[in-house]
Amino acid sequence: MEITLKGDKIIASVPSLKDKALRINLNENIYGTFSEIGAGQETVRHFFRAGGGSGTIAKAMSAYDKDFSDAIYGIEKDRRYVTEARLRKMLDHEINLMEQRITRDKHPHKMFFSYANTVATIDFAKKFKGHGWIGIKYQIDADQAYNEIVLHVRFKENDARLQQETLGKLGTNLIYGAYYKHNKPKKLLRYLYDHLDQDQLEIDTINFSGPVFENVDNRLMSLQLVKNGMTDAIMFAPDGNNVLPAKVLYKKNILTLRGSFRPVTKVNMDMYKKSYDMFIKENKVDEDNTQVIFEITLSNLRAEGEIDEQDFMDRAKLLCSLGQTVLISNFQEYYKLVEYFSQYTKSRMGLAMGVNNLIDIFDEKYYRHLSGGILEAFGKLFFKDLRVYLYPMENEDGTITTSENLKVHPRMKELYKFFKYNGKVVDITEYDSTTLTVFSRKVLSMIAKNEEGWQKMLPPGVSSLIMEKSLFGCETEQANCDEK
């Protein structure tokens, strides 16, 4: 047991890795296999060293050679090995062998498990940091169906040996948490970092399934990854399920819209459609290789200092219902978002935004933490192959603000003109003028006050979903919750 002290007070006690492995080993009913590809047998090593492993470890293997691995698990269509599909094949294959080889008559109380990982550690040139898929398929009752926890990690350390040690610690934490913290999945997530630091690895995707997790929403669990600082961004596909950002963004042209989407309105969708039409006509943009992302920053999910999880779910459901891919990020500044995308693609990118967002980009206060200030941020933002598509704003006097008459701070005027007249900022001209007075906060207020007319400000079908699911506090029995 390791104890954390703050002054003279004990503030936390964390079981050592040896204690965790030993507790698993001494449970006479936990019995399974370890299959580890790419980084050695780093996890099972902890269980061998803890002692008492003969009743727990049915088999430990490392099918490191690709031909031998293919002979066991089959050949992937994409010929890749560090994939979710490969991991799931490993888990399923080993559990099937367990069921075939160990009779339930002889071991009626055994809770079978299969732990697996398929990992690529840092290369010799240190160009690719390394990443991997890790998972466990297991029972908590011999008569119950199997549960699964599957996650993806990106290594941050610059030494393969250190990455291997990190993998072993994470794997031990995962197996221990699967058996002894499964009833508290949010805590299970935090315990994955026991004896680890966030500068050692990033967990950017996690999915829970099976009978013990039937009430777990994987979108909320992924939100915890960002909230806990375990990753900077998580992504949901249009079907509402978690998806690995790298898989969606790899070598794609990316068009991004940032907003609160609380709720998504007609102006949001008009901005998306008009910017998309302009983006796909650009040089170097392949429509078939273009990915649109609706992005919400973590600061937009906070209510009175805390993240409102129900509010988050409401927004995600609406955007996914419109067929959109959603990114939840910890990037307050746009340049950080662009840097994040640049990990996965060198292709042209676009940012669609309103006038107020662009004015904020030229506000120096957001860059005081950078040694190079706003120039450093703009170097990172516009150095990439990127273009801003600016949606106009209607002012109180009825005039329209565009990139031509937009006013920034006098010190930023020449900088703004430089990017504007070098084609980095272009106006969306074919906009729907009837949507310019639509604002999410106005719609939200109308829903809360049970006022008429908010439905017509939303895309088709959205108001029906809000009423059907009672989103954003809309009560279905309210007289004005009718699509008009």
UniProtKB/TrEMBL annotation:
Gene3D superfamilies xrefs: HUPs
SUPFAM superfamilies attached to this UniProt entry: Nucleotidylyl transferase
Keywords: Receptor
Name used for this protein in its record: TonB-dependent receptor
Native source organism of the sequence: Bizionia saleffrena
Organism lineage string: Bacteria, Pseudomonadati, Bacteroidota, Flavobacteriia, Flavobacteriales
